[in-house]
Specification:
By secondary structure, the chain is of the alpha/beta class. The protein has one domain: Alpha-Beta Barrel (TIM Barrel), CATH 3.20.20. The protein has 10 helices and 11 strands.
Amino acid sequence: MVGTVKEISNHGAGLGYRQELSENLASREHGIDVVEILADQWMSPGSLGQLREISERFDTVTHGVAMSLAGAGRIDTKYLERVREVVEVCQSDYYSEHLAATHIPGIDSQHLCPPIVSAESRRACVRNVKQANSALGVPLAIENITYSISTTSDHLEAAKFFADVVVDSDSLILLDVANLYINSQNHRFDPEVYLSQLPLERVVHIHLAGGVTTSTGKLIDSHSESIAEGIWDLARNTAELCNPRTVIVERDQNFPDADVLLEEVATARSIYFDHQ
């Protein structure tokens, strides 16, 4: 897989593409190296034409939220076919998805649920990642998620579980720095120790985002605020440990002026790419 990492293009720093941002970004393309397309929003046949236009204007990478890689059952083959259409329209050289369960047969949780940390669950995750890799025709990068309740009290064990799935499925990593920071604060563990368990040479993609703090002091990955300094600090540390091909700033609500987001993109670019 190291060879595959080297074959991934250097996409640079950019934004998660959202319709709410499209008008403002039209005149600011010079500040964006790449946009991340959320595949689940572009699966209807009528939307592929517009998606093709976006991919002609911007370098694009593709990402998803509903594959349920950590589910007990196999991935829906029709869903994988729709994902592949999006990947092909965008001419993506990899696809990223969360290591999470989003549904069980007959029930859609509408939420990214963490995998159960067990040997049986690991085998199911590896099987599903391999199924997705085969169906999509491009390498799969799997993402660490946030969780309010952990399926293990040992966060080092959770890191090893994630690493084992990555290695056993021979996949890539999307390292969500914001998710790691939030989990480390909410569950009181050292993010650097967590990182030490991961095969960071497989990191091709970084996510950065800002969230909110509840009245009880818990951090929420809401993608609604500017990126906190603690997340930037962790990003600077990770930049010394890995060489991603893509860095994406995510914003899903409470959209500021585009120049504010472009400043965050510029900061991310300076952290991850100016030292290379």
